[in-house]
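Look over what follows to help learners.
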Amino acid sequence: MFKMMRFIRPYTLQAILLLLAIGLQSWGTLRLPTLMSRIVNDGIVKNDMGFIFGTGGLMLAWALASALAALVSSYLSAKIGAAIGRDIREELFKKILSFSVTEADSFSTASLITRTTNDISTVQSTLSMMLSMMLRAPMMATFAIIEAVALAPDMTWILALSVGILIFFIVLILSFVIPKFMLYQKLADKVNLLTRENLTGLRVIRAFNNEKYEQKKFDKTNTTILKTDFFISKLMCLEGPLMMLIFNGTSLLCIWIGISHLTLDASYLGKMMAFMQYATQVILSFLFIAVVFVMIPRASVSAKRINEVLKTKPKVVWKKSGGESGELVPSVEFKKVSFRYDGADEDVITDVSFVAKAGETTAFIGSTGSGKSTLINLVPRFYDVTSGEVLVDGKNVRDYSAEGLMKKIGYVPQKGFLFSGSVKSNILFGVDDEDEKRMKDAAKIAQADEFINKLPEKYDAKIVEAGTNVSGGQRQRLSIARAVAKNPEIYIFDDAFSALDMKTDKKLREALRPVTKNSVVLIVAQRVSTIRDAEQIVVLDKGKVVGTGNHLELMRKCKVYQEICKSQLSDEEYEKEVLNAGA
């Protein structure tokens, strides 16, 4: 938790003003019992009305000054706390954006959302309270003890006894609460995960009529979090009665000891009243400290989870600068590339080598799990190679800055993803200016203009989160239009034509040819019809290259490619392809 205190540094001046305001508030509050003691002993006992009104006016002035200081301190603590929350949220979000796919997967999306929202809110509210209570309470307690000892030293043992009992119960409660707070945060992650999973897979759940199973799974976690929360609440409920017991016990002891002294010294009445108020301030101060210390464990768990993200070192480390390549003609080259996921026993890709040239289409095909998508994800450095080199325009991708490499690439993921906004904002997502012509040309090439023009608001039509208000094929076409609008040197299509019908697929690829004549085109596909016109086809099997060439060459010499074609074509069509290849 205290590691989060570094975020206070930019607000040092405001923190100093807060400290001064709290000091004035504490001193003003603690002047009142002494002044009240004087009114009783020197005013009421001696029947001096002038002294009573004069001292009463001074009490009123101190009370107003204390109230004003309390208002200023509340404002400053809230303002600093909100600013710190904003800063933590910005730094955390920036860190998450720097993660490679490996780090993002290691935390899980649900956990990262919880850490960015609930955990930061917990830390922010605790820091705000610490800035006020953790400064004011110790200051009040210290000043009150000094005043109490100076006023009635023979009664200070009451304070020592009360504070000792109070600390014992605080430590006892915290020893039970802290482990439960840690469990609670993990359960909150699980609830978020289940909620997100069910909302995302709602259609699948309904299609398999599995609502009851999912409900039961959610209820189990929800019940566990209820029991944990209830246990914490029960322990926290003990705090109030215990504090009241200690407070009332202290008051009774003060009155008992004070009355016994009154038989010897009538002026002890004022001292007794002042001492009781000081004792009250001491107990309340420790009570506030207890409240903060009860909040700190939960905030510490949240702070630890936030720090886990902030301290995580991305496996993909980018250069601060470096966007120029050694060659003017775009190219992508793999040199004996192997890749293995973290924790895996075997390589997903083994010793892959090929060169993809500008003006040519290089396609990748193979059975499910052959490593096609993993391979092309190495080009934009979503992962780093385990061994070998990936070169873009003759330069190792590790020697580029993130901006330098990404500005060369137009990427279309396997699952077309759209951002909340409009059709226009999605197509121009990777473009600096809002060029209407570029947007419409890109949509036309991607065969998206037809359905866009049928929308009531056309290019200003709203797109909801993840683009769920348009079909899968429409999402893919808009994703392709987004890449085309960027006009990159390298196009990466990760099975980006899978949701398109054969006619649209063919029209789209024909429209792409003139646009990509000076670019490198990398296509991952499942359908042979999508890649048969590619200048170079790389056939993968279990992460290894088993064939390279064009369609006819592979039909003659690559058994794996022949099997893929045979599985997708009728017997007559396959025989015709074999004859055309001269195999």
